[in-house]
Amino acid sequence: MFFNTVLVVLTDLAARFLGSAIFRKHFHLVLSVLVMFGPALSLWVSQHSVFAKKTHFIYRIFLRSGWGWTCIFVGSFVFLLSFSIRRSISLSIRHLSRLGVAGGLWVGFCKLLDLLENTTGSCYERLLNSPEVTNGQPLLVLQEGASKSECLRAGMLWRGYEVSEDVFLLCLCCLLLAEEIAVFGPYLKLGGFSGGPLRILFLFCVLLLWLWIFLLICLLAYFPQFPTQLLGGALGCLSWRGLYQSWYRLGPSWYCPGRPGQGLLNTKTNGAAAEDKLNHDQCN
Questions:
Q1: Which residue positions in the chain have pLDDT lower than 70?
Q2: Under 8 Å CB-to-CB from 204, ≥6 apart: which residues?
């Protein structure tokens, strides 16, 4: 009974905060400011911290599989919420298709970014024993004709036009999480059924959102790369804007899955008004 009470209190507070108009209107702005000025944190953090090593387990376990973790928890929450309300597999699949669209967009952009880096990049060999050193760095000699894979396999350095895929992924996942789980607050206000499994999944999604924000801060503070991280954040925000603020507003159809919560929040008498308010809060 005690743990159930704690769970209800925590999830109600989190749902009320994430579903508020202030959070929904300004979260993407806060994220943009963080990406723009986050590298300045490198002036205060210690490079001897455990988070200053890319081999730290939190980077290996979560960052490298960020999209997988997001799909597991958000997909489970979206499916359980939609199916518990409508008992319709087709409706649940339609809401889950937003994750598939975002995943396809992420994979497509990653392929394009790799192509851009391969096309604009060049291979360089480090001359470690050379007496000519510039700013304490070894001299680099251009190696023509080598591809990126051949260059890296030979232990040489590849330099091209890069966009941070990690920052792109984290920004996209944060904005996607904020959009998908924000419907839980209006759903609870309508008196919707919220058992323990649904609340636990929602709490896991909230924790995952804060974990992605923490990892984003760590990347910007301990591994600042300007302007590649800024471009990655901008690409993530633009992807969210194109999907959730543009395409999904067209309404559910054969070519559009619709907004989160659409068709779910109007199960009560005042559900349509709540859904309209939620949609209005998404406007910026």
A1: 128-139, 266-284
A2: 73, 77
